[in-house]
User: What shape does this take?
Amino acid sequence: MSISDLKSAVPEYAKDLKLNITNVLTSTSLNDQQIWGTALASALSSRNAFVIKAINAEAKEKLSAEAYSAAKSAASIMGMNNIYYRFTHLSGNEDYLKLPARLRMNIIGRPGVDKVDFELWSLAVSAINGCGMCIESHEKQVAAGGISKEGIQDAIRIASVMHALAATFDGEAALVE
Assistant: This one.
């Protein structure tokens, strides 16, 4: 499985996604670890096996073992946090914001890679999962860590294409069933 296989499988009606795959996986604002960690965390968060397998094959070759694990950890921990913090924000009841989360989040403090990279991956996953509180928090951390607005935009572009690919392949699979 490869990016080439992924591109070949994109239906004609989603040609823009095919064109965007290669485009978003290159950046003058992000390094390879940031790009491929974002792609892997985003693919995992988008939950489509075909997209995950294609991105995983490339990411395994481009990421160190530590970065590979950290990108997967970002997808995992933000899957939990995005639900919890989105609820506390959207419920409209400020009492929930005052309560301790009482959820373990040790990986955020010691991700095994540069903290800014882990925050970037967490930001991309939060964008996919639609958690405004988490987006705001991680965007501030990433910007404070030195990632430019263009770099942040590049990470969100990666997340958006991974999510759109997953939605397209899920939709196509549902049409066949």
